[in-house]
Amino acid sequence: MVMKDNPNTWLEQTKEAIIEPEITICDPHHHFWDNRVERGYPRYQLDELLADITSGHNVKSTVFIEARSMYAVDLPVERRTVGEVEYVQGIAAASASGIYGESRAAASIIGHANLNLGEKVRPVLESLASASSRFRGIRHSVTWDPHPEVENTALHKYEGQLVSDKFQAGARVLSEMGMTFEAWLYFHQLPQLLEFAKALPYLTIILNHIGGLVMDGPYADKRDAVVEKWKDGIVRISECPNVVVKLGGIGMPRTGFDWHERRVPIGSEELASSMAPYFNFCIDHFGADRSMFESNFPVDKVSYSYQVLYNAFKKFSKNFSSDERSAMFHDNAINIYKVRT
Q1: Is 0.85 surpassed by the pTM of this model?
Q2: Helical H runs in 31-121?
């Protein structure tokens, strides 16, 4: 990976004028953490987010997605995730004061609760909701792959969580409480997500990062087979009306592109062209009314800048109608996450 401690020094080599700065944006997927240099991700707090979202694009609001940061060590294990929501609530309150400008960071908050607790997850969810009026739901990552060289980022590291009785019982509580579920998994797990979505038809499920393509490591020489399996999964899961998809996340190295290794960062024209086959396939099946552009920052920042990324989104979407673009850049996120600014 080219950049480590100071991503901006590397990213500043590719500077672009902001196109269509009038387009209103809600960024529905970013994280906060203090320091993860060992994984190539330095500090990302309010200052760093603001530097990105106020760099030219018209980002009015953002949605924080859990990142296993600032857990409360003095609470029982299953409730420690409340600490993260309390921490982000403080950041959101600071942003809402207006002294940092018009953009509202973390206007809605997604935390974490262990759905493997089944019915016992209810008091955890109640505690999360009490920690912030901006809390909207959870992400429980289920990424699992049989190859040891594929990074397993899930907190609960075992196969088949989505289709287990306990997990679905916990998700049923989530649904009953009117909360949302962020689905972060790998492409070959989409059939499990299909079973999960059918079992919980009233739960709003947000498919992260276009469904978790993995085209590096053991899959580097199987890209065509990976894409075909991914396409089949996308077609099937898109038939569930309670599932929406986030268009982004392809800057992560596991997606198989070399952008993070380049001496000079990628520009928006090439990025838009690279995104197009995957994004078009998702939109063809989910529709613009169930798709939304996401930054996945700072994770995707290892590959491109915020200015370049949203320029690429705009170039990619230039042939869609104004209503479709408004939906994917802003309106869908506002509605799904009940963003209030």
Answers
A1: yes
A2: 46-53, 82-96
